[in-house]
Amino acid sequence: MFQILIIDDDHSMKILLKRMLEKQGYKVVAASSGEEGIEKALACNPALIICDWIMPGLNGLEVCHRIKTDPRLSTTFFILLTSLDSVADCVKGLDAGADDFISKPIEQNELQARVRAGLRLHQLSRDLQTQKLLLEAEMAEAAEYVRSLLPPPITEPFNINFRFIPSRQLGGDCFDYYWLDSDYLAIYLLDTAGHGLKATLPSVSVLNLLRSRALKSLNYYQPSDVLTALNDTFQMSYQNDKYFTIWYGVYDRVKRQLTYASAGHPPAILVSCTNQKISEVKYLKTPGMPIGMFPDAKYVDGFCNIENFSTLYIFSDGAYEITKSDGTLWSLDAFIQLLVSLQHPLDYQLEQILNYLITLNSKEAFDDDLSILQIQFD
Predict the structure, then answer these.
(1) What is the mean pLDDT of residues 314-327?
(2) CB proximity list for 2: less than 8 A, separation 6 or greater
């Protein structure tokens, strides 16, 4: 049974409204002031409130504003009872959050019709809220599943660590690293266009495809071959117009050689140090269109020898395409300068980088998914 709260300082009006509504089968609670009405609203969480506009103490507008700004009463339908009928007064009521108005003197059929309409909207709001909570719970489960697919940090024979912050519960970034055999490590990071579930599904598909080595004839040791195979498999016309960028590398730990290829992805950054001083910064990127854009796209391999005490960073563009408080966009060069400046000490470097980016960002959440992989080879 729906519960209705009447807030009115006029005793006779309260009795009239209460009797009219109880005859329709509603459970009715009454309050004589705005302060008492708010207390009873919080206590009984009514489906609908009828509140007089002109009252001593808190008036109807103030009560409406307090009710509508309380998340516990977000679905309560609020009707202002008033003898005011100017456009300006209606605008004030709507700005305060009122859902409807009833003019004095009250006409019984109009009251019943407006209450029925208000309760229908209240029920609809509750149903939508319930569905929203269910959807959020399912999205949270999906996000937890995606996170469970990501590899754990490793410390032997070298360190690999990461930071991953989707702009929403689900994002389009994904990465993985695993041994192809005892000497060769595959490592990649991809970024699907867009956000949410539509971007997550292709990312997870790529991860499962590469991790299971489902393409049996593919040479997973050759990055350009891997990108070509992915481009053949994930064409936009077959994948809901979704494309993705990717950086894919294979590290030979015996020869200390890295073979890599990229498809429209930001360059990986290799920082080499000697005697605790930075000796060289390399941009590791090869030409190639994002995966899925063109069926005949070509990809090539790059090669790099890994010097002692080198650190490799692979990241998505969300790490540097950040809107600062002055409205300008941060840059890749500035991000690389940050990586270089924080080379020592390394223990908490990723945490330092992330804290810097959070401080730099002008919004509560990042506009894009943010992923950073850090590989310390010694």
Answers:
(1) 90
(2) 26, 27, 47, 48, 119, 122
